[in-house]
């Protein structure tokens, strides 16, 4: 089977809630890493076959196929199409999968894959809220078939995170220690210049502004749980934010034809799913499935990125699969860096690629929980 290569990857800095990127139009946000990617790789943009872009809540400035709009706003050739993908939190990781599958099939040569999310302007669940205002049903409990299969159980991320903590015996203190490590790792990564290569300054912002270097266990312990009687607080959850990231995926012939130097190879890609009411447990069976399909074990993987939607999600995944924290999210995760939903998959891959190069690791595995109980897994090989 033909190979798919990562030629380069770049992202914006991450803007916090009500932060530096809050007023940036979603198309301008998405255009920035695309423009920078073309500049860095030196490719002729007219040779790109497609732009595959992740984004959720595609209303307002994110509507109308933002993958196509972001490319045009970047000032690039009109003849290049774009498509927008919604696999919830895994949207831009799935965009990379589609791009890789395109070049592996031989039907495409060069594809830009990535994603963006302007969460300050268009908050999470905005589409559901807008639909409700027009009298439309819930995507779950308004369906006769859904109720027959899953009943009227609440479908809620906070509830899922609480259930996971309870099932896997994860304490509030344990989650707070995990959250503190996320902030400390992210701050250390910036202090040591480890993010410099992957971030293209934008709108006067040169560094991620979501990290809280003064975070302490005492401060985390003072936060009230989101649900009465629960242990999930804002301090152990991912942050709403604004960001975009883009990767150039190329086939073998394109590498030769355009004189490109790949940084990594897509070694494996897959997606699996689990119970949609539990919602956030998908990375566990998805990782098991991916490793089996790839003929690999946990010990073969040098670094992991598992999205920190909530501390309990990543901690349960590590506990179930016996993955050491020393190999996971080594430059911090979404608790410190934020979870710009449509962009997170591409952001994680951009960071994983650079972390492998920095540490000299060979294989990196990326996964994340996604709405509907789904989880993508990508294994890349550093070249």
TrEMBL record:
E.C. no: 2.3.1.9
SUPFAM superfamilies per the UniProt record, alphabetical: Thiolase-like (SSF53901)
One family name in Pfam for this protein: Thiolase_C
GO terms for MF: acetyl-CoA C-acetyltransferase activity
PROSITE patterns: THIOLASE_2
Ranges of residues in domain Thiolase C-terminal: 261-382
Top EC category: transferase
InterPro entries to which the protein is assigned, alphabetical: Thiolase, Thiolase-like, Thiolase_C, Thiolase_CS, Thiolase_N
Keywords for the protein's UniProt record, in alphabetical order: Acyltransferase, Transferase
Gene3D superfamilies in the record: 3.40.47.10
Positions of the catalytic residues: 89, 339, 369
Thiolase N-terminal domain span: 5-252
Similarity section: Belongs to the thiolase-like superfamily. Thiolase family.
Cross-referenced NCBIfam families: AcCoA-C-Actrans, PRK07801.1
Protein name as catalogued: Acetyl-CoA acetyltransferase
Organism: Sphingobium herbicidovorans (strain ATCC 700291 / DSM 11019 / CCUG 56400 / KCTC 2939 / LMG 18315 / NBRC 16415 / MH) (Sphingomonas herbicidovorans)
């Amino acid at each position: 089977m033909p190979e798919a290569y990562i030629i380069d990857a770049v992202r914006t800095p991450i803007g916090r809630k009500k932060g530096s990127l809050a007023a940036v139009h979603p198309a301008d946000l998405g255009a920035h890493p695309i423009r920078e990617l073309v500049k860095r790789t030196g490719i002729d943009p007219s040779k790109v076959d497609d732009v595959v872009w992740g984004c959720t809540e595609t209303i307002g400035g994110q509507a109308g196929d933002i993958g196509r709009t972001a490319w045009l706003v970047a000032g690039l050739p009109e003849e290049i199409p774009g498509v927008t993908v919604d696999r919830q939190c895994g949207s831009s990781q799935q965009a990379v999968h589609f791009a890789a599958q395109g070049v592996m099939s031989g039907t495409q040569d060069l594809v830009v894959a990535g994603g963006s999310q302007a969460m300050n302007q268009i908050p999470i669940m905005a589409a559901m809220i807008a639909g409700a205002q027009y009298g439309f049903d819930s995507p779950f409990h308004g369906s006769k078939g859904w109720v027959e299969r899953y009943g009227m159980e609440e479908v809620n991320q906070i509830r899922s995170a609480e259930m996971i903590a309870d099932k896997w015996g994860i304490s509030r203190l344990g989650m707070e220690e995990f959250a503190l490590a996320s902030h400390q790792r992210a701050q250390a990564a910036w202090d040591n210049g480890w993010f410099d290569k992957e971030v293209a300054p934008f709108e006067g912002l040169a560094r991620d502004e979501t990290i809280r270097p003064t975070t302490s266990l005492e401060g985390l312990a003072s936060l009230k749980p989101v649900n009465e009687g629960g242990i999930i607080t804002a301090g152990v959850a991912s942050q709403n934010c604004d960001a975009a990231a883009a990767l150039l995926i190329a086939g073998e012939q394109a590498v030769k034809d355009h004189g490109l130097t790949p940084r990594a190879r897509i070694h494996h890609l897959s997606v699996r799913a689990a119970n949609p009411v539990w919602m956030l447990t998908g990375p566990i069976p998805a990782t098991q499935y991916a490793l089996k399909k790839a003929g690999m074990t946990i010990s073969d993987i040098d670094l992991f990125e598992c999205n920190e939607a909530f501390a309990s999600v990543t901690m349960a995944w590590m506990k179930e699969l016996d993955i050491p924290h020393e190999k996971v999210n080594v430059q911090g995760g979404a608790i410190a860096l934020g979870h710009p939903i449509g962009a997170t998959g591409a952001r994680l891959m951009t960071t994983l690629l650079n972390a492998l190069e920095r540490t000299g690791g060979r294989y990196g595995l990326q996964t994340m929980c996604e709405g509907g109980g789904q989880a993508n897994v990508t294994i890349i090989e550093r070249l």
